[in-house]
Specification:
Distance between the termini of chain A: 35 Å
Radius of gyration of chain A: 18 Å
Largest sheet of chain B: none
Oligomer: heterodimer
Strand content of chain B: under 5%
Largest sheet of chain A: 6 strands, mixed
Number of helices of chain A: 7
Number of domains of chain B: 1
CATH superfamily of the largest domain in chain A: P-loop containing nucleotide triphosphate hydrolases
Strand content of chain A: 25-35%
Shape of chain A: globular
Structural class of chain A: alpha/beta
Chain lengths: ~230, ~270
């Protein structure tokens, strides 16, 4: 493991105008409040916290799709950020066309997608419908296809939002295995999740966020315990 | 008060050009696919649309009304109007499409890091394909009516490049402006309407009264004149083309500066 961080966040702050409950006005809410930490190679970092605490905002800041108000984000590598899986699909295109589309969007070269095409189709378990338009797929099938593309190849750093396992029981087992293999490939993983039991086993570090602030950052067991006790 | 440090520092990506070129291709394909989804004729509409438009204009304006522009043959009128519409459709449709590009694709841009200029660029390319097919239809009519026996392809290519730069520059500006001021989405139809009638689209530029000197500030006046000159007389004014090119490049530099400075606002689009 290198001592140089892959990504450094220094006092990152982001405010949103959010509607006030029961009132017509809007108020400024801090989605990230002076967030600072480093991400090192081969870490599996879990990001936990209650709904609306800033987990997704943090992943978007790391992934470069957030207009931060203050602070500095320094990246040695551009992460592959997967936030809403099926947002990246084109329903009028076929499964194969979507593999090339989604792959290109997340920055994978066409020749690499071609090299992995068979394994993506096999992994998704959708070979029988891969030439059909996505409008014919169920939502579960779309999830499977998107997950198969998102985790293809050998990413150096991947950010996943609430995505460890998707689909039915069989695919979920395959997805968990894929997650394991990403770890073995020395891929750095940042994972925002509510699945705390899973996280204790897979994370090397957990960050607990509340109201946009880092409350705790460290050993998964301790941080998860602190989060549970905070109610 | 000290200025807050707000910065994203990212590494230079290997194969940046190749990866983004491939992104541009898939975004362009997506645009075209979504346009012709659920249609029986699909991509054939790219060719059919200008043909139908040409037939309708020729039939009603020339055959039914018998309209004739001063100093021209009746037979030339459909070509004058169609060439005007060919340029205008490219400009106006790209602007309208660009106005909504980040709103329609907010899921895509908020979830994936990609150079944002690719979206207005892919819009411009899709409409440019329409422009090329429309131009081909006008050319077929020019040859069919024996107004020309040959065409200066080089001049046509140079003109198309200038027009593409001009329209892409506008597309960069309009794609962002609608995010800052949503009212622009409603205002644009009035703006385009004024621009349409103040440009010699349905009439030749020779009809504009000389005292209306300010009309010449409209870049479309010069573009339409150049396009019609190439299509109808097989000649071109190289000085005018150079001026159009320089004007388009300056506009691109300005709108690109505006886009690069403000593009991050796209991530906050609701």
């Amino acid at each position: 493991m290198s001592n140089n961080p892959l990504i450094t966040l220094n006092s990152v702050t982001k405010q949103y105008l959010s509607p006030q409950a029961g009132k017509g006005s809007r108020q400024l809410v801090k989605a990230l409040d002076r967030v600072s930490f480093d991400i090192f190679e081969q870490e599996v970092i879990g990001v936990i916290g209650p709904n609306g605490c800033g987990k997704t905002t943090l992943l978007r800041a790391i992934g470069g799709t957030l207009d931060i108000d203050k602070g500095l984000i320094k990246r040695q590598v551009m992460p592959r950020t997967i936030i809403e899986l099926t947002q990246n699909l084109v329903y009028e295109a076929t499964g194969v066309q979507n593999i090339f589309y989604f792959g290109a969007i997340i920055g994978i070269e066409k020749r690499e997608i071609k090299a992995h095409l068979d394994s993506i189709i096999r992994f998704s378990g959708l070979a029988h419908v891969i030439q059909e338009p996505l409008s014919h797929y169920s939502s579960g099938m779309r999830m499977k296809l998107a997950y198969s593309v998102a985790t293809m190849g050998n990413p150096k750093l991947i950010c996943l939002d609430e995505i460890i396992s998707v689909g039915d029981k069989n695919f979920s087992a395959k997805a968990t295995k894929k997650f394991e293999s990403l770890r073995k490939q020395k891929c750095t993983i940042i994972l925002a999740t509510h699945q705390l039991d899973n996280l204790v086993n897979i994370a090397t570090r957990v960050i607990y966020i509340k109201n946009g602030k880092i409350i705790a950052d460290g050993c998964p067991k301790k941080v998860i315990e602190q989060y549970k006790q905070s109610g | 008060m000290a200025t807050a440090l707000t910065k994203h520092l990212s590494p230079p990506r290997k194969y940046w050009f190749k990866i983004n070129f491939e992104r541009l291709i898939v975004l362009t394909q997506k645009e075209i696919r979504s346009r012709y989804k659920f249609t029986v004729l699909g991509w054939l509409w790219i060719i059919l649309t200008p043909i139908i438009q040409a037939l309708v204009i020729s039939f009603f304006l020339v055959k039914v009304i018998g309209l004739k522009a001063p100093g021209t043959e009746t037979i030339e009128l459909p070509v004058i109007i169609l060439s005007g519409l060919t340029v205008w459709n490219f400009v106006s449709r790209t602007i309208i499409q660009s106005m909504n590009t980040f709103i329609m694709n907010k899921g895509l841009v908020k979830n994936n890091y990609l150079p944002l200029f690719l979206l207005p660029l892919s819009n411009t390319i899709v409409k440019f394909i329409d422009f090329l097919t429309d131009t081909a239809v006008v050319l077929i009519i020019v040859f069919a009516l024996q107004l020309q026996t040959q065409i200066n392809i080089l001049a046509l290519i140079l003109f198309a490049i200038c027009l593409f730069i001009f329209v892409y520059a506008l597309s960069l500006f309009f794609s962002l402006i609608n995010i800052f001021v949503r009212d622009f989405g409603h205002l644009i139809s009035f703006i385009l309407s004024i621009w349409f009638w103040s440009s010699p689209i349905f009439y030749p530029a020779t009809l504009i009264a000389p005292k209306l000197w300010f009309v010449n500030l409209n870049p479309l006046v010069h573009m339409l004149a150049s396009f019609r000159q190439i299509m109808l007389t097989n000649t071109f004014d190289s000085d005018k083309l150079i001026k159009i090119f320089l004007m388009s490049v300056v506009l691109l530099i300005l709108t690109n500066f505006f886009f690069m400075r403000n593009q991050k606002k796209v991530y906050d689009v609701e």
